[in-house]
Amino acid sequence: MPANDLNSSPSPPKVDAQIPPQVLVLDGGFGSQLEALGYAVDKSEVWSGGALIEEPELVRKCHQSFINAGADIIETNTYHLCIKKLRECRGYSVEQAESLVKVFSFKFIF
After folding, report:
1. C-beta neighbour count of 93 within 10 angstroms
2. How far apart are CA 20 and CA 25, in angstroms?
3. What is the SS3 string spanning 15-65?
4. DSSP assignment, residue 65?
5. How far are the Cα atoms of 15, 17, 35 from residue 42, in angstroms, in the given order?
6. How many Cα atoms are found within 13 Å in the side-chain-facing hemisphere of 86?
7. Domain limits of the chain?
């Protein structure tokens, strides 16, 4: 089978080959940072994940503040944004909830 065949799948890279020898810094407490910027985490039924729906620019500011402070790794802030919670707390259909979870998992990464 040719190496560029679409049906072939390359071997995943080894995890240890991706980790630099130095210590990496993870971003800080996202909910605390959102509160410091004025978002009422305790008022949202999906906690800090609600900011992704209600105030995405505030989420970008939080990420940028962690980057400015020297963080090497930034998390997606999708904690508590699962299909079940979006349906129960926000009244979304399964399709809407699935779409949001996909968007929020990739939107702020790329």
Report:
1. 11
2. 12
3. HHHHCCCCCCCECCCHHHHHHHCCCCHHHCCCHHHHHHHHCHHHHHHHHHH
4. H
5. 37, 40, 9
6. 21
7. 23-106
User: How many residues are there in the chain?
Assistant: 110
54 token code pair:
């209600």
Q: Which two tokens stand for residue 24?
A: 């990496």
**pTM of the predicted protein model:** 0.64
Residue identified by tokens 């129960």 is 88
- Please name the residues in contact with 103: beta carbons below 8 A apart, sequence gap of 6 or more: none
CA distance 31 to 80: 12
Token digits for 17?
């080959």
Q: What single-letter DSSP state applies at residue 110?
A: -
Residue with tokens 């089978």: 1
* Residue pLDDT tens, the chain, 110 long: 444 444 444 555 565 666 666 778 888 888 889 899 998 888 877 777 888 888 889 989 999 999 999 998 888 777 777 888 888 888 889 999 888 888 776 655 44
